[in-house]
Structures are given as structure tokens and as C-alpha cells.
Design goal:
By secondary structure, this protein is an alpha+beta fold. It folds into 3 domains: 165 residues, no CATH class; 124 residues, no CATH class; 138 residues, no CATH class. It contains 17 helices and 18 strands. The strands form 7 sheets. A 4-stranded antiparallel sheet has the order 10-11-12-13, sandwiched between helices. A 3-stranded antiparallel sheet has the order 7-8-9. The structure holds zinc ion (ZN). The site of zinc ion has 7 residues, from helix 4.
């Protein structure tokens, strides 16, 4: 039986298309024997375990050792077929298999029908988990990915592509409890192959036991934080000369994907899937990201703003650290839920500031010693508030100035409670009541602009957003002022603190 592989015949399914690209990278376009391709893939999917086994070689009439193998991690989360043992024989009272076990996955396209993935009519068989890993929870998956409902059937070409998909994926395991999978997809397979060859493959690590095959700026148990970590790491490839991992062709392709160089190639999506590897992969989330250019434009603005203030610093590191910082070390591991929520809203170009506020008041302010946000956070957030949320520069400037004075004064006067009252204000009336208290107790003048209402808006923004930004600036200044003297020596400035 033969299959025909062509970059001109995408299926539209992200997993199968990626597998096709992997197949063509290995075997080339054109007609191929199914058996030859299948054997070639199996070889790449098993790994030596480092253990030795023994079997009885009947032709040599002696016991021999062999190196045990198993499905490579974490492919073994999805391929649950174990090695087939050989018949046993008893020699000198001991039982031996007559050959090492065979790790095999058989295709059996004996039925006829329509392939769920590519629509081809012909020999097909019911799809299995090792062909399409997300078929494990079909009902759940159909909600995420409506292309697949009910039982799937698969043709030999798509079955081989499905198996090859494991060679092209990006994955990141977190503590054995969570497995994140990332797959880029485009309907243009030539573009997808170029992305694989010039960008992804050079960055991918060899299969290792480290629990991941792709570096990220940071990663955690949740999908969005890890997705953001991956994107930041990709972005950094175009900024840091010292990384030096991508060829000029790779950088050029990445530049055009990120909108820095014309022409912008075909549409690209990045899928992120997360679940618990266990007996069966239990998918928890399925995300799709495609706003690469918008995010990269912001990223460049962040770098530019940081360069103005801290020309001697490594700006890439600063940006990574700003998004990384929203976690809390606990006795048992690290809680990253704030980072996850902020990353989720950032990737959706939404308002993540309520989580920054929550993090400052609930985590940072209660740490010992308390720490302000990392250096450059306020600059980067200001750019986001202006560019994405529509905050006027003038308002940001007012809030920053007033917020900083408020924070410093509250710290000096021992009035942290006032900041919590501000943070907790649930209505416009309450907000004004707190401002009134601040005026009275700290003898501060409230900027007029904050008092000029248009409906429930202050300078074009809902009052609650204004309140959130003010309370972030104030608490950040409070925490900066409250730091022990020693820690304040370096990186001190009104615009951002340093937590070292
Ligand atoms: Zn097919």
C-alpha cells in the first residue's frame, strides 16, 4: 500500500498538517510505501530506557542481553500500546523470552469510508489516540475544536501524519502533573515547513528527560503563562545577538511573521493544549493565539521605553522579568495564578490590571520584606494602558504623580489602611469618599482631573479603571518607600522599583 505526500494537500487539522510537514521533511514529497514510512517513524518514537533485559537467542543457543526500550516521553502519555513479548522458553530452570519485545503500532485500514481529517474516500480505519492524541475526550474536544464530532475514521496518509505529529510538537511538562502542548498551524504547508525548518527545529532541543523540548522565558502549570513565556522567548530571538541560534533565514521568516518585514506570510495560529497526563490524557484547556504582530509591536514599544530609562540594562531580561514576577513562593511549590490571569488577559488584549492590583495588595504587600514591582513595570504597563486600553497620556501622568505621592506619604504617616480602602472602593461614591479621607488625613490635594466626571467616566475611562491604576501606583510607591535602605540603593527611581 502506498501514500502520496504533498505540501499542496493540507487537511486543515492542526495536528495532522503538522505531521504531514514532519513526514515530508523526512521522506520528501511524492509516493511512499506505507510500511517504510511507518517503520521509519516507529524508530524515532522509541527510546532506550538505559536498562538491560535478557532473552534466549535460539539460533545462537545462548542467553543474550538487550537494551530495553519504551515509547519516548511524553509520547508514552498517548501511545499506550506496550511492547509485544516473544514466546517464552525455559532454559536450565529459568524462563526467557525468545526475542526482545516488539514496540509496534499497526495500521489496519480494512474498512472503506471517508477520512474525518482530509475527506478522502477509500480505505480507512477508526482513529486511535496515538493517531490523534486529543480524541481521548471526544465530547469535550468537540467543544474546543468543532471540526471533530463523533467517531473519527482515518486514511493511511492521515494515520501516518498523526503519528508523525509527535515529532513536530512542542511540549512542556510541569512537575509530572501537567503537560502543555503547542502546535503552530497554517493552511499553507510550505510556509509551515519553512517555519519548522528555519525557526522551530533549530530552537528545539533534542528529546531529553528534562520534561520539555522547547525553551520559554518562563513556564508554569497553567496554559496562558506558558504560552506567553514561549512567545517572549521567540520575540527575544530577534533582539538578542548573543542568543545566536537562528540563521539569517530563520530570523527573516520570524520578522515577517511578526510584521517587521514584508510580506506578511499566510495566516498563522498557535494552539496551546494543556492537560493532565495520567492514565488517559485529561484535557483541561485548548487555546488559540494568532495576534503575533500586535503583541510584538507592544513588545518593541516596551523595549524602547525601557531603553530610554535604563540604557545600560538588558531590556529583554527586564521585560521577561516584568511578566514573570506575578508568582508567590509557598511552602509547597510556587503559586502562579496571578501570572496566569495576567497572561490570559494580555494575550487577549484585555484589562489585566485588576490582577496586578490584587497581586500587589494580597501578595507583595504581605511579603516580608515587602517588595515593589520589578524595575520597568510601570513603564511597560503605562504603554499597555495607553495603546490597548485607551488611557490618555495626560491621565496616566496624573495618576502616576498623585499615586506616587500618595504612596510615599501613606508610608511615612503609617496609613497603609487608606490604600486598602482605596483598593476596596466598590462604587464611585465610595471612591470619592476615600479620596476625601486622603485629602483630610494626609493633607493632600486631589488633582482636579480626577474629580471631573462625564457620566461615570473620568477622562474617558470608567472610574473603576482609574481607581485601579491609582491604587497600583500608590501601593507600588508605598512598597518602594518601605523597603529596607540597603535594598533601595540600586535601580531607584520614581518610575519603577527594583527587586534586585
Ligand atoms: Zn485522511
Amino acid at each position: 500500500m502506498k501514500v502520496y505526500l504533498s505540501l499542496d494537500e493540507p487537511t486543515g487539522n492542526f495536528w495532522i498538517d503538522n505531521g504531514l510537514v514532519e513526514l515530508i521533511s523526512r521522506f520528501g514529497e511524492g509516493e511512499h510505501e506505507v510500511e517504510e514510512v511507518r517503520q521509519g517513524l516507529l524508530k524515532e518514537l522509541v527510546r532506550k530506557t538505559g536498562k538491560l533485559g535478557r532473552y534466549y537467542d535460539e539460533s545462537a543457543k545462548q542467553v543474550k542481553e538487550y537494551e530495553k526500550v519504551n515509547w519516548a516521553y511524553p509520547v508514552n502519555t498517548f501511545i499506550r500500546v506496550s511492547g509485544k513479548p516473544a514466546p517464552k522458553i525455559t532454559i536450565a530452570g529459568e524462563e526467557y523470552p525468545t526475542a526482545p519485545p516488539v514496540f509496534d503500532l499497526k495500521l489496519n485500514p480494512t474498512g472503506r469510508g471517508r477520512c474525518t481529517f482530509c475527506g478522502a474516500e477509500g480505505p480507512t480505519e477508526p482513529s486511535k489516540q496515538w493517531i490523534f492524541p486529543f480524541l481521548v475526550t471526544p465530547d469535550k474536544f468537540a467543544n474546543f475544536y468543532p471540526g471533530l464530532r463523533g467517531a473519527a475514521r482515518v486514511c493511511p496518509r492521515c494515520a501516518l501524519a498523526g503519528l508523525a505529529g509527535y515529532l513536530g510538537w512542542l511540549y512542556r511538562a510541569q512537575g509530572g502533573e501537567v503537560l502543555h502542548i503547542f502546535v503552530f498551524h497554517s493552511h499553507d504547508l510550505r510556509f509551515l515547513k519553512e517555519l519548522r525548518d528555519t525557526v522551530l527545529q533549530p530552537l528545539k532541543l533534542k528529546y531529553t528527560d528534562k520534561g520539555f523540548n522547547f525553551p520559554t522565558a518562563f513556564a508554569g502549570p497553567y496554559i496562558h503563562e506558558t504560552l506567553l513565556g514561549l512567545l517572549l522567548w521567540l520575540f527575544a530571538q530577534l533582539q538578542r545577538q548573543d542568543l545566536g541560534e537562528l540563521s539569517d533565514a530563520g530570523k527573516e521568516l520570524l520578522r515577517s511573521i511578526l510584521g517587521e518585514l514584508p510580506p506578511i506570510p499566510s495566516e498563522l495560529k498557535l494552539y496551546g493544549i494543556s492537560g493532565q497526563p495520567g492514565k488517559r490524557f485529561n484535557m483541561g484547556s485548548f487555546e488559540e493565539f494568532s495576534r503575533f504582530q500586535e503583541l510584538y509591536r507592544l513588545y518593541r514599544d516596551w523595549l524602547a521605553a525601557l531603553t530610554t530609562r535604563w540604557p545600560q540594562e538588558d531590556q529583554v531580561r527586564l521585560v521577561n522579568h516584568i511578566w514573570d514576577q506575578f508568582y508567590q513562593r509557598r511552602e509547597r511549590g510556587t503559586e502562579t495564578i496571578w501570572r496566569e490571569r495576567i497572561a490570559r488577559d494580555l494575550l487577549g488584549f484585555g484589562d489585566f490590571f485588576p490582577y496586578v492590583e490584587q497581586f500587589l495588595y494580597e501578595v507583595r504587600a504581605k511579603e516580608s520584606p515587602p517588595r515593589p514591582l520589578s524595575k520597568g513595570s510601570e513603564e511597560v504597563f503605562g504603554i499597555y494602558a495607553k495603546g490597548v486600553l485607551g488611557m490618555k497620556e495626560e491621565l496616566n501622568h496624573k495618576l502616576k504623580g498623585f499615586g506616587h505621592t500618595l504612596g510615599r506619604t501613606a508610608q511615612k504617616e503609617g496609613e497603609m489602611g487608606l490604600l486598602y480602602s482605596l483598593r476596596n472602593a466598590k462604587s464611585l461614591e465610595e471612591f470619592y469618599r476615600v479620596l476625601n479621607d486622603i485629602q483630610f488625613r494626609l493633607e493632600m490635594t486631589i488633582p482636579e482631573e480626577l474629580l471631573g466626571l462625564e457620566g461615570e467616566k473620568i477622562m474617558g475611562l470608567p472610574w473603576s479603571m482609574v481607581k485601579t491604576h491609582l491604587s497600583i501606583y500608590a501601593m507600588n510607591a508605598y512598597l518602594r518607600a518601605a523597603r529596607p535602605q540597603e535594598g533601595r540603593m540600586k535601580g531607584e527611581g520614581e518610575g519603577g522599583g527594583s527587586d534586585g
